[in-house]
Amino acid sequence: MIDPWLPALVVLSSFLPGLVIFFLAEERIRLRTALNLIGAFAKIALIGVMLWGVLNDHEYVFRHTVLPGLDLVLKADALALLFVTLSAVLWLFTTLYAIGYLEGAPNRSRFFGFFSLCVTATVGVAMAGNLFTFFLFYELLTLATYPLVVHRGTEKALRAGHIYLAYTLGGGALLLIGTVWLYGVAGQVDFAPGGTLSTLTPDTAGQLQIIFLLLIAGLGVKAALVPLHGWLPMAMVAPAPVSALLHAVAVVKAGAFGIVRVVYEVYGIEFAQSLALLLPLAIAASITIIWGSLRALFQDDLKRRLAYSTVSQVAYIVLGVTLFGPLGTLGGLVHLVHQGIMKITLFFCAGNYAETLGIHKVSEMDGVGRRMPWTTLAFTLGAFGMIGVPPLAGFISKWYLGLGALEAGMPWVLAVLAASSLLNAAYFLPILHRAWFRPPSTAWPHESIPQRGRWETAPLLLLPPLATAAATLVVGLFAASDFSPLDWAKLIADREYLQWTP
Amino acid sequence: MTDFPDPLPWLIVLPLLWGTLAFLLGPGRGGRLAIAAIALQGVLALQLAGQLLDDGSRVYAVGGWGAPLGIDLMADGLAAVMLLLTQAVALPLAVFARGYFAASPKGRELFWPLTGFLLAALNALFVSADLFNIYVTLELLGLAAVGLVAIAGGRQPVTAAMRYLFATLLGSGAYLLGVALIYGSYGSVSLAVLTPLLTSEAPLAVTLAAALILTGLLLKTALFPFHFWLPPAHGGAPAPVSALLSALVIKASFYLVLRLWLELFAPLATVAAAQLIGALGAAAILWGSWLALTQTRLKMLVAYSTVAQVGYLFLLFPLATLVPLGAADSAVQGGVMQAVAHGLAKAAMFAAAGSMIVATGRDDIGRLGGVGARLPLTLFSFGLAGVTLMGLPPSGGFSAKWLLLMAALESGQWWWVAVMIAGGLLTAAYVFKVLRRAFLPVAEGDRVTRVPRTLEFSAFALALAAILLGLFGAPLLELLAVGRAA
Hints:
The complex is a heterodimer. Chain A is mostly helical. Chain A has a domain at 277-502. Chain A has 20 helices and 2 strands. Chain A has a two-stranded antiparallel ribbon. The relative contact order of chain A is 0.10. Chain B has a domain at 283-486. Chain B is built from 20 helices and 2 strands. In chain B, 62% of the residues are buried. Chains A and B meet through strand 1, helix 5 and helix 6 of A and helix 16, helix 17 and helix 18 of B.
């Protein structure tokens, strides 16, 4: 049977091209591009097959015993596929964008090699079937992203890389302690809908609470929960495609997704609620949401502003996880997808401004909408989505988060959501106002890609953000139809609640 | 002894033969012969492992005499694992050494004969069945190793070699004294004869003997605070020698400590002694890693990393002594796994460091810029070896750490967990110190030349083996279990 090998193949579909790319000479651009695209499309095709299977209650499990009592498990279940599909599709766009972005830059083989490894790690994180496998890919993600963060090799980049490593390896260490401890207490257990720990004897409850804290702290570093978020704004020195990867596809998502897994499929949402673990996490997420937005207000550097916005937005996912009840789950899970699509659009656009006109700061953006209308249109859609304007993607997320808060009996969360939306508007609308309504300044800081006919910038830089901006609109408009992210999240939420009666 | 040829004696005779032949061939010759012979030794070690898995551990009587008159060779799972490790590390290193000495001929004259004797001593040590034979192999091993440190000549290496000679002789002296005391008490040096005799009511002289023997061996393993001799010796020798010493030679005395502690001296083992050894291990991990982090020379950094990694080996003693059986098993497995993983990874790391030094023409971490661009495979190998040493999955180092961590939690000794995690983070710090330098563009006025392919690929093979060990470690543990009381 080929079934068990499908999850492994999904991982290999970016790993093998990545390995080959490392050894390609710099000038073999066509072969490198071909390898990248073959890997990306093969991955999407494999995922398509599994999506169809999982919809029909099929599970794809790959299992390899590393040591007695320690299995490497890759499993494509509904939750895994939500994240895998997101990262595979966005990876394709990011690869295209990166090809355009890095044209003529040095060390591209190294860049794309690690880029592929990074996606390999991400899909591994998504499909990990137990905590050990998750940890393996979580650490691989750290190692694969480090060279991307320091890619430019400047003093600033190296310092950011240093901070990044210190945070993420420290987080990894906490995750490892938690994992080993849990294996010691509960033995080896695979992720399963509804969790597996509720069968343990009640005297382990205290240990389980400490382990939860360790695991969440370890994951919270990558998910950039306050106060573990310091690395994310620093990492802004990385090239734009890497930022897109860090913020939308891979790193922060891996952390948030890990929290989803731990709460739902290790502890089980109902058991976590009974251990009184959800409320503290909800408070931490709320603080992160407000703090991130507040900090974003005061950033003049566009990418830094977006980074703090990520801090805030990713915490929405965590907040949704902690709202006890299927509607909250739905809101959190669907935001995992929606935030990715919106944030990648915004970073693509920020990269376009920087590459085309040399604009790095919000204060330099006056009138940029006239020079780059399409990019600015995409940026506008992303920003409105983040604020939560209907019918865009972000609105759907916030709607279900709000309903979930009521269902969970935590109405104060509504205040957090409202405050955060106001803050989102307060840091995004001035940008849009500058871009569309202020007169352009006499000269751009550093115009390096001239207007060519209709093309305001290089085609490979323009098309990916337009596509993802369109997606922001589409997933919002058609949220109620079959196969939308919302529909898929419903499928997962239905399977997570074992004894739920509203 | 129905199999012909029996792999056990040939694993000792073969390296002696090719070592002698290489000496007769003349200075610097015999590399190709050595590679072929080591490959054959590898086949023999595999054959022996297969026999053990099928029929359990076994004894070979040299010349058919048998103990107590003749000499016995004894092989169980633990010995077989060490034999496999030795040949698996030696083969890529021999390929590496041929390329290395072609590019940097200093010290090539005596490398092959001494390596032959070194491997013969190692293989003999692993299968020795009595305390006196072990002494002989230890001395031969020590002398071959000291010779290898000195082969490059020059003041620094010779000073380091003298210091190493002093340490190794002191260690074997203490060991021999202990053996004499035991012989005085029981009238035998055969492990098989002594093991049933030695009980917890043993006379004071025997306890003293055990202390002397173990201290001597710890000195040879360079466990903190006996590590003073290691960095100059391992950091000063030519790269292939450093790799052999760090990967294999110190493992030999560790192997003896482990075997004696678990078998002959098991009745004497106390929690206090075990905790003391563990504490020295912990100090080695933290102090060695810290010193590695402060080095400016690449090979010294790698050498201090050995000081630190040796510490992990000794964490197994508190975790395996007078604790529940499951924890003890897991601790021994973790310790041996660490010995194997470190052997492969450290050989890879020294080999990669050697290539970088050949390429940049100097041993300076600050001047590694350009290595990432010119020697990507070498840097990648260094990184992979670093992953094993940090204990990140998937790697043999992670499997080792996992087993040790499980043992620590199962036996309720959480303080070792903290040490292991802190050690992992410090390791990451010094590994990335090298990697981030090597990623930089080449500095003004520096040149990075290419090195022969064989140098790059042999280091890569070793590093890859350390990683694969993490994915396919189960058979090794199965072999280790042969002959150990379950």
